[in-house]
Amino acid sequence: MPTTILRKESLIPGTTSKMVLHAPHIAQKALPGHFVMLRMSPQGERIPLTIADTDREKGTITIVYLVMGKSTALLEELDTGGSILDVCGPLGRPTRIEKHGTVICMGGGTGIAAMHHIAKGHARIGNRVVGIIGARRKDLLLFEKELASFADELLISTDDGSYGHKGLVTDLLRRRLEKDKSVFEVVAVGPVPMMAAVADTARPFGVRTTVSLNPIMVDGIGMCGACRVSVGGKTRFACVDGPEFDGHEVDFAELRRRLGAFRDQETISIDAHRRAIHGN
Amino acid sequence: METRKTPKPLAPRVEMPCQPPHVRRANFAEVALGYTREMAMQEAARCLQCKKPLCVKGCPVEVPIRDFIAQVAQGNMDAAYRIIKSTNSLPAVCGRVCPQENQCEGKCVLAAKGQPVAIGRLERFVADSFIAASGCEQVLGSTACALPLKGPRVACIGSGPASLTCAGVCAVEGIRVDVFEALHEPGGVLVYGIPAFRLPKDVVATEINGLRQMGVNFQLNFVGGRTVDVRDLQEEYDAVFIGVGAGLPVFLGIPGENLVGVFSANEYLTRVNLGRAYDFPRQDTPPYPGKNVTVFGAGNVAMDAARTALRMGAESVHIVYRRTRAEMPARLEEIEHAEEEGVQFSLLSAPVRFNGNEEHQLVSVTLQRMELGEPDSSGRRRPVPVEGSEYDLPTDLAIVALGTRSNPVLLDATPDLRKNKWGYIEVNEDTGETSMPNVFAGGDIVTGAATVILAMGAGRRAGQEIVRRLHGRGQ
């Protein structure tokens, strides 16, 4: 059964959008940290997206995506009232949320949306949530309002200084960890280099660091090992053992290389799609 | 059985026409082309119509083989179909992928001379040639078999051979069945694992449509243990069958295994079969191109992966196995097909490590030669490494086909299910019932990775028990 898109909202025109989907079965079970696999057309591939929010009463889940290749381009062509062919989930292990004190939740790019769901879980259980989010420019910042509605503090950085701190999110993290001993965990969701930098920054402070990994996935249910990552020298499947792991143990360099495994095919695919759209 | 005097020497088994190796290694069309009507009738005439047919005992779902073959011999294909379908929900599948030499055909009295009746080929012919107006007609010979709106309901988790068979057994008896499948297409290993050149996807779709027409309802994108819990289903349904398979792939555990270019057979085959990556970029799932392909393992999955790689354009495909040809677990027919198509076998060889370039892409695998030593606990001679025999095999795509383990997704979410020491679900062998009342299980999630037909046998046993209980209770 296709899944209806109840609302689509453009967050950054042309690149990033948010969709609220009617998916009562998934909404019923989904917890922070879970993801879904989607397929847009009968010829389509399966892609993973983190669940950015849920509403159990309304039976909805929210997804946020960055248009990067053919599948996300196909998703972007859909609109409110349309439907997605296949949505499967909730998948993965939920975030470990225990009441402990202060948790710093860090997000970069579309990762802010996924982080926001995790941060919300921590806020609900009564942890003190410090949000740290960053973007290249002010207008590329996501979910500021949503985070501000429940976070105890929200720190912002931009690369060009157009909003908040000028620099990187890790600058803000370092400063915070230097003066705040109540932090029991740092959670980071974003591009691989950002998560690696967060882990490096937190390491000397000995603070638990959790990252949500985004490797290539095919089935998302533990059948194939496409999403395998090295954590503490051991091979783990991100779709069933994760996607969240101890950031101090993850081999980020290997993850980055494996993410590039199909770069040539991805280019072929998006080029063929653009030619088909522009009709030549 | 009394031996009957045969008046004339027995006719030889009718051969199955096949695509020639040099043609088929470049396409995904079915290798074996199937009998014609004349061939089927000629082969059926070889059956001795034993009073106590041993072939039926060799069939895990107990197809009334003698009786259907009698109908084929007379040219009554529809009658033959109904006889097969009375115990087998997926005859077009079984006729193609069962290891008949170890099952029905192995028990045929003519097998002693190496010429058993070609039961699998006949079953396949009958299934392929029958065109029913409706799913009910397939089974009952009547177009009217509307399911009662009220009455017992059964949930099956997974839609592989075990669940499909259980669903079929229940549906024939007028029980409403909902099948919950995690992927976007039903069929389990029949759609993501076994390649189209052995089992065309439209054959699977036809069998599944037959079940749909009998009232079986498929809920796709529902993951057992995630989207639906066994306990929820137990409350909502009169019985639950778990047939989720053993899908978690085993890797070699040697250095370099996470280099770009090393795949599990499950991933490689899922991309090509379920994702139809052979038709990329018309289909969006990308294949990973490989010129020199090495496959590890020697079971049917290894043969499927190796033959798929050839069809995807590989220049050379090696199968690496640490024992000898005699120990290879794949069906002889599959090994021969692979050889004919040009797959090379590196026997008595074991992988030591994968080697990558600066970009961490796979460039070769280091192998070590083995020799057979003393027999181990399984009675097979243990392969022992030969000192100083390491050599490199150029490889840009490696496929690991060493088998699978139990998938933890459903088991972790269902702590009430008792597991055996290997981590699979423990069941009552006669009924298929688990430690949770009215929750049954069968197939690879009980036995570990086995065959399609054994999973179907387990699905049938559980289905029959469910029918017995529900109809007994309802009346």
Question: Helix and strand layout, with pairings?
Answer:
The complex is a heterodimer of chains A (280) and B (475).
Chain A (H helix, E strand, L loop, with lengths): L2 E10 L3 E7 L1 H6 L5 E5 L7 E9 L4 E7 L3 H8 L5 E2 L1 E6 L10 E7 L2 H15 L2 E8 L8 H5 L4 E6 L6 E2 L2 H11 L3 E7 L2 H11 L5 E5 L15 E4 L2 E4 H4 L2 E3 L5 H8 L3 H16 L2
Parallel strand pairs in A: 8-9, 8-12, 9-10, 10-11, 12-13
Antiparallel strand pairs in A: 1-2, 1-6, 2-5, 3-4, 3-7, 4-5, 13-16, 14-15
Chain B lengths: L20 H4 L12 H8 L9 H5 L6 H9 L3 H9 L5 H7 L6 H4 L11 H11 L5 H6 L12 E5 L3 H12 L3 E5 L8 H4 L8 H13 L3 E3 L10 H7 L2 E4 L5 E2 L12 E3 H9 L18 E5 L3 H12 L4 E5 L11 H10 L2 E3 L2 E8 L5 E14 L5 E14 L2 E4 L3 E2 L2 H6 L25 E3 L2 H4 L4 H23 L1
Helix pairs in contact in B: 2-4, 2-8, 4-5, 5-8, 6-8, 10-19, 14-15, 15-16
Write a structural description.
The complex is a heterodimer of chains A (280) and B (475). Chain A is an alpha/beta fold and 280 residues long. Chain A is built from 9 helices and 16 strands. Chain A has helices spanning 24-29, 70-77, 111-125, 144-148, 169-179, 192-202, 238-241, 252-259, 263-278; strands at 3-12, 16-22, 35-39, 47-55, 60-66, 83-84, 86-91, 102-108, 128-135, 153-158, 165-166, 183-189, 208-212, 228-231, 234-237, 244-246. In chain A, strand 8, helix 3 (111-125) and strand 9 (128-135) form a beta-alpha-beta unit. The longest helix of chain A is centred in the last third of the chain and has 16 residues, at 263-278. Chain A starts with a strand and ends with a helix. Chain B is 34% helix and 17% strand. Chain B contains 19 helices and 15 strands. In chain B, the strands form 4 sheets. In chain B, strands 3-2-1-4-15 form a 5-stranded parallel β-sheet, with helices on both faces. A 5-stranded parallel β-sheet of chain B has the order 6-13-7-8-9. In chain B, helix 10 links the parallel strand 1 (153-157) and strand 2 (176-180). In chain B, helix 10 (161-172) runs parallel beside helix 19 (452-474) and helix 14 packs across helix 15. The radius of gyration of chain B is 23 Å and the shape is globular. The A-B interface holds A 1, 25-26, 29, 39, 41, 43-46, 70-71, 85-91, 218-219, 221-226, 228-230, 235, 237, 240, 254, 257-258, 260-262, 265-266, 268-269, 272 and B 182-184, 192, 219-223, 226-228, 247-249, 251, 257-258, 260-261, 263-264, 266-267, 270-271, 275-276, 280-288, 359-360, 407-409.
